[in-house]
Amino acid sequence: MGYNDVYQAWKADPEGFWMEQAKAIDWVEAPKQALYDRGDHIYEWFADAKVNTCWNAVDRHVENGRGEQTAIIYDSPITHTKREISYVELRNRVANLAGALRAKGVEKGDRVIIYMPMIPEALEAMLACARLGAVHSVVFGGFASNELAVRIDDAKPKAIIAASCGMEPGRVIHYKPLLDGAIDLAKHKPDFCVIFQREQEVAKLIEGRDYNWHGFQFGVEPAECVPVEGNHPAYILYTSGTTGQPKGVIRPTAGHLVALNWTMKNLYNVDPGDVFWAASDVGWVVGHSYITYGPLVHGNTTIVFEGKPVGTPDAGTFWRVISEHKVKSFFTAPTAFRAVKREDPKGEFVKKYDLSCLKAVYLAGERADPDTIVWAQDQLKVPVIDHWWQTETGWCIAGNPLGIEELPTKLGSPAKPMPGYDIQILDEAGHPMPKGELGAIAVKLPLPPGTLPGLWNAEARFKKSYLEHFPGYYETGDAGMIDDDGYVYIMARTDDVINVAGHRLSTGGMEEVLASHPDVAECAVIGVTDQLKGQLPLGFLCLSSGVNRPHDEIVKECVKLVRDKIGPVAAFKLACVVDRLPKTRSGKILRATMVKIADSEEFKLPATIDDPAILDEIREALQTLGYAKG
Ligand code: COA
Ligand code: AMP
To answer: Acetyl-coenzyme A synthetase N-terminal domain spans which residues (predicted)?
Structure first.
């Protein structure tokens, strides 16, 4: 069957299609019904089933004779460490950790926050929660205390599992003070914390609250897998919306298992036993789906890579890891390839390694620019697949399913909709747009298994953000088009979310932080084009009247404020002071126009602009930062 046959088979009988895929999962009680319509455009999949995620990701492989196969390869060029964990070891380690968590009172439905770097223990913590039916929420290690505190207050975790530190090139990230700071800031207090002490830093534990990862497992009974309902939340993952309050995307257990397992063969074309590597971070959705759950559920070997594409130690790291661990399918972000290409445009490092094991490369997280794709194709001589997805969906919306059929590549397009997704381009009023015309990208409801059924603690926000604008559709927040051959093109966001080095960030969130500076009366943050990171945030600051301190001092304080409040990962380093912001007569800040000026693109003067002269001031300010030069 080719792509069209599979897509049509899904379209003809969506529930039958997913019931068939569900057979690949080990159920405690198999689903009798696929889809549940809960009314008001809310749907759930496999709600009547009973299942355990950890069983499917770990134990069943041991039962089925894969116990000695390597489950996790840890490769850390930053700490010069390599380690392998077999499925049977993983089962034992996870069962012990789960047993210790249970002994301290963690039960099905309790939330557990995980704040860990790229070490195997991060995956073990996730799996231990899944084993108990506890709902984990992994917080990216590059986030500051304040961001962690916001997530603690929203998820209200019974426990927090953290490492003593993370490692960035040339510096140790002290996680423990960040964690302590977050718990101080948060209103909700966890019952206890579990700290994994790394060799690079031994953190001070707070007696009665903090337990040592090893010590607290001593003498406990290992835990068995706890069956949960198909619609039980597997995890909550916070992602950026338009405000500083992140959205807690809920991942439903059964659909997650069925969908991810389907993608491993059909999209990524790997068989059980093959090595699959996603060079992302467990703090992001790519890490959840394709470092932890997808490969393990499917019986693959997954790689936990603690390093960067360049500088750890050089631009050949990716190729070294691929060749050394026999990676068959490799997943990274375009920005990582741009970083490698910048240091090694001619691929001198590529030539040093035997990459015959590598069969395909997958890119996601941001738009894959044609130059980067062509460079990767030339260097690696394998299909380079752009595929589009979001934290909300948890897996690919549009892509090129190599395990079914290799569709011809069209540069700039992540190819075609995956089964489960009926993608439509709509105008502002919700009418379908003609082929080739730009509009809002929406997906006809219901979304497929594994996608979000809601936001944690925020039903009204869920409906408002995704369901209300186009009734009967899921609003993706992306704009784009579909061509005559059915290829999808993702062009821009329709909201204030920007994408910095494959990381999704809220300009609204940064504005809230800047506005808290005592000298800032008003501000705006936009995403300007960057050759390496895709976009970079740039802030405009209007000062309160009477403030006459040097502007560069205020700018420096603002940069530090964003770093302290959101984290270094926001990469907020560009800001300037302006007298006024360009607005419409109704007071809406013209961010899109400022982006066009910064990027030296042509733009139409908005008809509703209050005072066009302000745009010249904005251009001058941007020029001082090296933008708007064209
Ligand atoms: N913990 C603490 N700090 C972190 C961190 C973490 N887990 N990850 C990044 N940071 C810090 C970095 O040290 C850097 O700090 P600095 O401002 O002091 O230099 C800042 O956050 C920005 O980090 P990063 O985005 O990694 O930029 P970089 O300039 O260090 O490296 C790239 C550039 C392109 C190599 C890097 O962005 C990259 O590897 N991108 C790929 C992203 C990716 O895989 N995304 C997954 C989505 S699919
Ligand atoms: P995240 O939720 O962090 O995965 O970010 C999702 C957003 O990243 C999408 O809504 C897009 O804006 C962007 N994105 C992800 N993958 C792609 C892609 N292949 N092409 C274009 N944009 C992408």
So the answer is: 3-57
